[in-house]
Amino acid sequence: MTRRIILDCDPGHDDAMAILLAHGTPEVSLAAITTVAGNHPLALTTLNALRVCTLAGIHDVPVAAGCAAPLVRPLFTAEDIHGKGGLEGHEWGEPSVRPVPEHAVDVIVDIVMSAPGEITLVPIGPLTNIAMAVRKEPRIAERVREVVLMGGSFTGGNVTPAAEFNVYVDPEAAAIVFGAGWPLTMLGLEVTRKAAADEEVFRRVSALDSPVARAVVGMLRFYQRQQMSAVGVSAPPVHDPCAIAQVARPELIPCREAHVEIELDGRLTTGMTVVDFRRRGGVQPNATVGVDLDLPGFWDLFIGALRSISGVV
Ligand code: PIR
Ligand code: CA
Predict the structure, then answer these.
(1) pLDDT of 268-286, one tens digit each?
(2) pTM (two decimals)
(3) Which of 39, 67, 89, 227 has the largest CB neighbor count within 10 A?
(4) How many domains does the chain have?
(5) What sign has the CA pseudo-torsion 218, 76, 149, 297?
(6) What CATH number does the domain containing 298 carry?
């Protein structure tokens, strides 16, 4: 079984790890990588995606740039966490991979429409491109296999007490995506905070002793320092690879059905995912929500992917 995915991302250190995991995992094949503004402005998230593709030897996957700003609100970035220059922690050369000229929204629509029932959309940044795509071509809602996204939370946020970054940056887009009627899995901070890279993970990645492994260690060390000074956590959580892990090995992430709505005009709660696990009043679930993570299984998958990219057997 190989799942064809479109990875919609805003690299970002953990997005870079998700690209590597997707490339190195046999259960997943990349149909396209699309970029969106989020952690950084669009020019930098796109450059970073091209850098990661160049590093990993991803030459046959279209990379398309998408929306430079949220649907309604001004862009809010996370450069305090990810560093001004993009993927800091590794010396990046000029990328040899080039983007395709098409807009990400058109790439998403075209690929999904031409392969009914096949494509899994994996958004791991703000949901602007995905919302635009389903507005432009509503039939993609019936044609995707599913949407598996990193975003939201039901136990408090990271950018505000209530909101997780990806939903907070473009809540109107998130409301469209959660309301589109397609099969949707939400992997929020309850799952992704567990995916923390401790010293054992650093040791296992370092032991691979390849250019990709060295870049990953460099990026993780930078990310670790930022997380340490921002929130005092020594093991940095790699949020976005959890979405790839769910597609490749769903058994790693236990989930529960829920009805999820996005707060658009709260005084303190804008961008909150209001997750209702109750079954009351005939409200139908619109999402499957991740509630836990098999941590050893997750790191085995991740390190296995890095090993395969590194050509280590
Ligand atoms: C991670 C992110 C934003 C802010 C912080 N503090 C940490 C990015 C990650 O790329 C991930 O997709 C999501 N947003 C986690 O909130
Ligand atoms: Ca991201």
Answers:
(1) 999 999 999 998 888 999 9
(2) 0.98
(3) 39
(4) 1
(5) positive
(6) 3.90.245.10
